[in-house]
């Protein structure tokens, strides 16, 4: 693991996710750019001291010197955005599989360069767009793909949070500090942090691509350096259209990502606050409540649940599904077989590049007086 | 009553709303431009034949000839949009109070002319923006006005329907026929039919005005003549911003108008599907479920409920609240007193003019390549 | 109308319910045992003074002297329980149709006597078990009757309220005063006031009869004279079983009557707080959300809704459905035709007798050390 | 681990729960009474072959021979009920800490004997009543303990499932087979499997004890040997009363454990289907939606959540909280310190004895014609 030392939020989440299914063992880390913090974090996590490193370069160099069956196989990179590209590139170049937190890089240019590196590497790459790991998000994608809803016409995605309603970066909140700092986050704040999740979810479920967008991007809290709020009109491939809302100043909201998609024959609705449910709506018959863990859902939904219906699985399980599917894919590689489509269904480099393109296009649109901005990569 | 003959939807709703509190008696009508239909409708409703007229002109002329204590006092006009202006103007000019279905007129120009007529008339005017009649919408407005949420930053309003997902106007559906016909509806379809409700609700609750908008307006169903779908970015007075969504092609959706508003300290959420509940959200404390009929709500919410908490009141009661408040205001006029603010709180001519301006501005924006369109009247 | 003077709760509800559809006109009343209160109430309601009476005896005698086409046709009796039997009996004996508030009488003996009177009378009788007036309760009954759920095995009904959590009868609350007073309510408090509603709903929807019961009946609030809380184990005809809960000391609860029924193949759930929805659950497929006002519900559900799906109808509409169905039945009688089954589906004398038997049996069981008490009439 | 071989449900759940926080490592097991199955299961789980045993006796004997810092420290026992007592007793007698699945034993007599063993042992004991591991169940208990609701008057707990609506034990369903078999489950079916959870939850949150009960116990599905359905009237210490419902024939229900508790001043409601929410109801103010992961909840709720509000945690996390708290307690023991009360708050031997007493008392009451059965141990 690179990053994720004491006090980090997402590092701990990655560790829970990796641990849940017993398919990963944490054996080495460079947990902080401060060697003392890295060492202390490694100790707390029960690592052997010789495998706790002071930098990602050192980790990769030294682990590579170990015999193949002793060295780390997968590197989880959980640093702030500006520290994604360097370790991911070096890891891939040295044949280590990479699990990288989103958004993929600091800029679209980096993303495209990383894509080239990944394509040239024998190693595999996974980007942790958590929300596509939920069983009922899988079900939603399969439902659209089945054609049962008819051609898709509308997609609405919203991601309201309230935790940046005040000037949190002026307090001791480390999460707020780096996420609102352009030198660490990149050109976008809310749009990078949560807008990319919303964008990814919409494209994943609909199977469509954003082709044009028109954004209203705001910095609501005085003194803040990056956007904390935005709304975006979308045009999608195939003639559909949509709306994306991402805000971190919706005071009183938690983290309620919500997607609605409508086709000619019906629609679907999923929200993280009720993650084990997918509502399926029809023109002339009752809405269905489809539930995770049941016998009637698709193989993709079944594959990503661990318990029978009525045992709620949540955010950590969705995150763990990414780790698990990546592991199953790597195990198939090792066994010389092909992983089943359900295991191969995890976000990768292409999603990362599109996410970075979203960030740059949406910020550009926000600054433009022109209505529609082409989605360019 | 003018319009609302056999087969009409909203005419029956108006009659239920007028009847519920026993404050109105239906005594005369011109229910259809077809005299036979008018007569048959009047008979079904139990009216005396001599007070069922063949046209609104006849009704107003003949009723005016009756002694003051026998003639109708209030005229409900429930015709399609293109037939609002004529009877409303004539009624006001002849001193009859008017209750008019929304949107107020066929065009903004008509609306402004009607406003001038209304201001010159001694008669009162009510526009049936139903949704502001709900007790918990009243509570929402009072909450914002109290300042408890702090300055408003964001407002999201959405009005998804699915009933025009197919080419209904090609069937025998009379509602679909006139609502999608530009010669009867005006320049807008969905935006006029339900977008104006959403717009009115947002301005009513926030107390803010839309100042600029950027609209994506679509006609999704092939062959349709007017918009059936739209999404609009909003800029609001005081620096707030928002999003308005109105669509009639969200297959499987019923009629779920929903509003969310966020200020510096908290937010609120109301939706028609759970109309007796207002969610009030706070930065650092639990969300409150405020309920209609309780003892703790504002005088405006209390005034607009008929039963104790736990006895759900719905759409007809909200509609009836407009009728009731209008009647209480007229009774106060007759008694030479001033109606209390709770009774005076019904939508009027100003809301009607803004609604028509919304229609024309939003359609203009939808056709424009320019991002922001000024909201002009 | 008999009873329902100023300050009464249920009288106003009856008037709204009667008014909503324009099928009744309030023309006469004996609103209070105090002639002054009766007169003042009649004046407020706009009645002609000569048709406001000082007692129900006077009302019935004098109205009967009027020509048949001038006298009242239907008498609504909305007095406290101890004043149900007298006016209902006299009205039926004199050929006036009766709408009576529940529970039907003060005692089971009275109920059986009233049943004999009703059966000997040419007049019709309706008992206002409101909750069976909801469209989705109708749908529930039809679903069970269709056999789609298979043989019914379990039924759970609960009616929690919190308004008697404190010693309200010690305050100026008139509702609390008579409902907790054995000389006006009868042998039961909560079990009579709301337990009978729950009992009626369960028998109505399941089509089964309670055959044995085992009750835990409590008076929770110190000083109270009647039960304010109870739970009852039920055995039902056909081998099913169930639980009935009715309490008025569930602090913080409003009025959330809720029913769940399970058969061999699936189950159903309805609750008043979401009255326009019926959840239908199946062994191996998604739960359905059936909604009032849609095209796919049964003719009974359709008949009892006034608006399309998505326009919530509530308690007053459910109440009005009883009035409307009774009126349609009487109109059919007058026309010499037979009302359709949808109109004839309103609660009558048999339901009233069973409700009174429930009260007496459940209180007896509460006092017994024997486990099961036979349900006897 | 003892039990939990291939095909077992709860064994996998225990492994996820143990893994999630990285506080346990699975190093040894006797996964089946069939040595081949045990070996195969161990291999799949990546254990060293020499630590996969053919029986629990062998495991305990051989592990004890290992040096103290190499042997297993904690034994998870996840066998069917009739195989709980033997390994638990032997483990405790040999100083191994025990995590045991519920219900604790096959009979109350065994439970009391195990209690004596546990009290004489230096080892610690945890019983996996999962549901008390949820953060908002902790919050509920703390809320009651704080006195904010006043003295508790009513408690309703229900646990409806539908998976045994048909004769599943006649199919290949191993879960159904042993859970309906008196030789493996004990005297109770549904009451032992889920009734004990409901009972434990009620006593845990209210802090009250069941003192008397009156049960209706049914075997609904023909051919079944044990109860699959029951409803129980409860009398609680301190004068409160309640109802417990547990059924496995509520066709279409998943696993929706739900608790409601009411005191003099307010009430609370929690259900597993919305596990991160606790509704807190008050006499005269709005219901509060308290949420896991927020800053305002009690230290007990905070301690048992891993992520901020809005990241749903579910069943596996609740289960993992038991494992984590047990581990934290053992770590404190090793460190010679006292674990904080939040860590010590896991179910133990006393809860196990009461659970077994519940089973025997409730089945006895079900067979009795006497109304109230004393709760005896």
Automatic annotation (TrEMBL), chains A, B, C, D:
It comes from the Bacteria. InterPro entries: Gfo/Idh/MocA-like_OxRdtase_N, Gfo/Idh/MocA_oxidoreduct, GFO_IDH_MocA-like_dom, NAD(P)-bd_dom_sf. It holds the Pfam family GFO_IDH_MocA. Residues 9-125 form the Gfo/Idh/MocA-like oxidoreductase N-terminal domain. One of its GO terms (molecular function) is nucleotide binding. Coiled coil: none annotated. Residues 138-269 form the GFO/IDH/MocA-like oxidoreductase domain. PANTHER family: CONSERVED EXPRESSED OXIDOREDUCTASE (EUROFUNG), OXIDOREDUCTASE. This is Gfo/Idh/MocA family oxidoreductase. It comes from Hymenobacter metallicola.
């Amino acid at each position: 693991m690179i990053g994720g030392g004491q006090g980090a939020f997402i590092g701990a989440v990655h560790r829970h996710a990796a641990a849940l299914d017993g398919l990963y063992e944490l054996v080495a880390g460079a947990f902080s750019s401060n060697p003392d913090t890295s060492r202390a974090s490694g100790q707390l996590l029960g690592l052997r001291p010789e495998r706790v490193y002071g930098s990602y370069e050192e980790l990769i160099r030294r682990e590579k010197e170990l015999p193949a069956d002793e060295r780390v196989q997968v590197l989880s990179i959980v640093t702030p955005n500006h520290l994604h590209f360097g370790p991911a590139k070096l890891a891939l170049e040295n044949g280590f599989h990479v699990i990288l937190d989103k958004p993929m890089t600091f800029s679209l240019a980096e993303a495209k360069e990383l894509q080239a590196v990944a394509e040239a590497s024998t190693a595999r790459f996974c980007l942790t767009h958590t929300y596509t790991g939920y069983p009922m998000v899988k079900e939603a994608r399969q439902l659209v793909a089945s054609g049962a809803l008819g051609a898709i016409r509308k997609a609405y995605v919203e991601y309201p949070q309230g935790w940046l309603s005040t000037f949190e970066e002026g307090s001791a909140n480390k999460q707020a500090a780096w996420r609102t700092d352009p030198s660490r986050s990149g050109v976008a704040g809310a749009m990078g942090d949560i807008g990319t999740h919303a964008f990814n979810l919409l494209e994943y479920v609909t199977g469509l691509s954003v082709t044009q967008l028109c954004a209203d991007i705001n910095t609501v809290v005085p003194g803040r350096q990056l956007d904390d709020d935005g709304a975006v009109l979308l045009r999608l491939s195939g003639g559909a259209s949509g709306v994306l809302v991402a805000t971190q100043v919706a005071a009183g909201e938690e983290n309620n990502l919500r997607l609605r998609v409508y086709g000619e024959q019906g629609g679907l609705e999923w929200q993280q606050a009720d993650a084990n449910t997918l509502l399926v709506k029809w023109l002339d018959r009752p809405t269905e409540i489809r539930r995770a863990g049941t016998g009637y859902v698709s193989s993709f939904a079944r594959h990503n649940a661990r318990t029978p219906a009525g045992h709620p699985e949540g955010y950590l399980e969705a995150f763990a599904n990414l780790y698990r599917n990546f592991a199953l894919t790597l195990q198939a590689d090792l066994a010389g077989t092909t992983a089943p489509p359900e295991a191969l269904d995890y976000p990768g480099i292409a999603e990362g590049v599109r996410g970075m393109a979203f960030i740059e296009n949406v910020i550009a649109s926000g600054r433009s007086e022109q209505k529609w901005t082409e989605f360019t990569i």
